[in-house]
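serine O-acetyltransferase structure dump, as promised
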Amino acid sequence: MATCIDTCRTGTTQDDDSRFCCIKNFFRPGFSVNRKIHHTQIEEDDDVWIKILEEAKSDVEQEPILSNYYYASITSHRSLDSALAHILSVKLSNLNLPSNTLFELFISVLEESPEIIEATKQDLIAVKERDPACISYVHCFLGFKGFLACQAHRIAHNLWKQNRKIVALLIQNRVSESFAVDIHPGAKIGKGILLDHATGVVIGETAVVGDNVSILHGVTLGGTGKQSGDRHPKIGDGVLIGAGTCILGNIIIGEGAKIGSGSVVVKDVPPRTTAVGNPARLIGGKENPRKHEKIPCLTMDQTSYLTEWSDYVI
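structure tokens r here:
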């Protein structure tokens, strides 16, 4: 696999290849040279990828048993897009859908659409900053299925826009089977996304999710069953959606809103307000809902509204 990965990329100069081989050999299992990585050895503007390589080196020093896995998954790759194409192709392959076939598909999309990798970097940063369980970028990159499902969706959405709907739907199916996350390739998703735990997340075809949104497990952005065409929710920037929430229909969740866990939302939610319950109610009432100052997707605060909810008892 490593040989295929090393040679399948095109458009590099001899200097690029020499520089890459130097880095690759540094991380190759059994290659021990006591020196540090210098940022000039790789793309200087790619801080997230640099950090991933540094973390990989540290992890292998602590757990040498992982050296082959880290080499195949991260350190044999010359860029983040190649490593991402590899990890997704391995995770989503099966007996009838080989990983090299998926790798060639994924890398072609990523190389033609650099905006996907920019969104990937923002997603990595979002997970690392908002999820206290995430110990490193490498931890997220290799093991967080919400992050991986989101990146696979970005590729599928790109193919969907090119009218390559059959292969886009195939990716959706494999993501659903592998990660228990079902995102229709037609859905539009912004950057800086956290799908925390992610199991059971369902996002429909005409849904739109803005930037810097945090969504917990078991969330459905679905239709009501009574509409066709544009029938799914529109989620504004900075929104936090708690676990087990259903948001149904072509409604708007305003910028910076917070939806409490287990809620069923069927009407618009104003910006910077909190909705909770089944059916969902606005904290503070419909006429004068209480507004919060902090951005909920960043604070990840899912319980403060309870102190304002007069009928909350335990």
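The longest strand covers residues 194-196.
lmk if u need the other ones
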